[in-house]
């Protein structure tokens, strides 16, 4: 669980924009998010909502046509003000990323042993022998069978699940304070997905590492996250503890996401896709960006953009008519009918 007395990572008025021939794509807008040591935060939303670009910017992995704004405070330093050389010293040592496709993080021409050991040699100053010994131990810790043989193989000789475990081992080698996992289970079958999520849960508790899990799948979130941030059109539109958000979403977009997930306790016909498409971020709609797809939109939603404000203790939502009334602590006019179907 998180240590809420301190903040490890703080994004303040954070923005990411891309200059394109068609105009400026405002991928992330005025985002505020704090992550505490040891906390697991899930960032969810449809494709194109800005989830990955938010943290690509934190890691300095954006395309050349990108511009960032605001502040990203990590361990007391603003990452956006660091040079590439200074950022290289932070990445891998104090924070690490696990990508959706492990082959994007692994060199196909190098054996697993060399790739893992190199991380420790560069960031921790270990000798080659010492680094290889620790690399082998980490492979065992992430559950790779016959690790003594696997460590001498090339990435293409491993299964997809094993490659993902290798990438997780690489991320954990320097015992970073923060790991960002971007859709780490999407390309894996259901059984391996469960194993990887269990692995994340166990290892983050063992190392007291904060974990940011980026996903479009709310089903992945329920069993692992402490807190959830829901993104839409480059902004956080709802944030809260996972149990609270799942039992009673405050924002219509969150409720719509939850209704779109197949569940074993509902008929297949009960799954409702969200109508329409995500907005064009070069020419976003006026007011609330979700209003063209929202069944509860009113005139104010079309005219004015709602701020991300507190709707109950520990809950924030960007909605003029949330399903939770901040003052009364009860649902709004449409809350009971809407959340009953989630």
Automatic annotation (TrEMBL):
GO MF: ATP binding; ATP hydrolysis activity
Localisation: Cell inner membrane
Matches recorded under SMART domains: AAA (SM00382)
Gene Ontology BP term (one): peptide transport
Organism: Consotaella salsifontis
Protein known as: Oligopeptide transport system ATP-binding protein
InterPro entries: AAA+_ATPase, ABC_Ni/Peptide_Import, ABC_transporter-like_ATP-bd, ABC_transporter-like_CS, Oligopep_ABC_C, P-loop_NTPase
Keywords annotated in UniProt: ATP-binding, Cell membrane, Membrane, Nucleotide-binding, Transport
Protein family (similarity comment): Belongs to the ABC transporter superfamily.
SUPFAM superfamilies named among the record's database cross-references: P-loop containing nucleoside triphosphate hydrolases
Membrane keyword on record: yes
One GO CC term, this protein: plasma membrane
């Amino acid at each position: 669980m998180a240590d809420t007395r301190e903040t490890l990572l703080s994004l303040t008025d954070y923005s990411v924009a891309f200059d394109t021939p068609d105009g400026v794509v405002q991928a992330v807008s005025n985002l505020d998010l704090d992550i505490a040591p040891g906390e697991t935060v899930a960032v969810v939303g449809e494709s194109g909502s800005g989830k990955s670009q938010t943290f690509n910017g934190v890691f300095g992995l954006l395309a050349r046509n990108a511009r960032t704004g605001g502040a990203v405070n990590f361990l007391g330093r603003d990452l956006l003000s660091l040079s590439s050389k200074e950022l290289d010293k932070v990445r891998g040592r104090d924070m690490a990323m696990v990508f959706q496709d492990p082959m994007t993080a692994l060199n196909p021409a190098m054996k697993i042993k060399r790739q893992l050991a190199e991380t420790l040699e560069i960031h921790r100053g270990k000798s080659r022998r010492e680094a290889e010994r620790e690399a082998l131990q980490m492979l065992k810790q992430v559950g790779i069978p016959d690790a003594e043989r696997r460590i001498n193989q090339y990435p293409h000789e491993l299964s997809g699940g094993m490659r993902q475990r290798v990438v997780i081992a690489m991320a954990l080698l320097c015992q970073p304070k923060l790991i960002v996992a971007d859709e780490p289970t999407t390309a894996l079958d259901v059984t391996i997905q469960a194993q990887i999520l269990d692995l994340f849960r166990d290892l983050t508790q063992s190392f007291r590492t904060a974990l940011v899990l980026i996903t479009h799948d709310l089903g992945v979130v329920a069993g692992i996250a402490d807190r959830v941030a829901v993104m839409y059109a480059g902004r956080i539109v709802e944030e809260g503890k996972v149990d609270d958000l799942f039992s009673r979403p405050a924002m219509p977009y969150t409720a719509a996401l939850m209704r779109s997930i197949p569940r074993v306790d509902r008929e297949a016909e009960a799954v409702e896709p969200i109508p329409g498409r995500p907005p064009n971020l070069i020419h976003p709609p006026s007011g609330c960006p979700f209003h063209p797809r929202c069944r509860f939109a009113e005139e104010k939603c079309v005219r004015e953009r709602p701020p991300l404000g507190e709707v109950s203790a520990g809950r924030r939502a960007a909605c003029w008519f949330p399903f939770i009334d901040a003052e009364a602590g009860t649902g709004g006019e449409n809350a009971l009918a809407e959340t009953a179907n989630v």
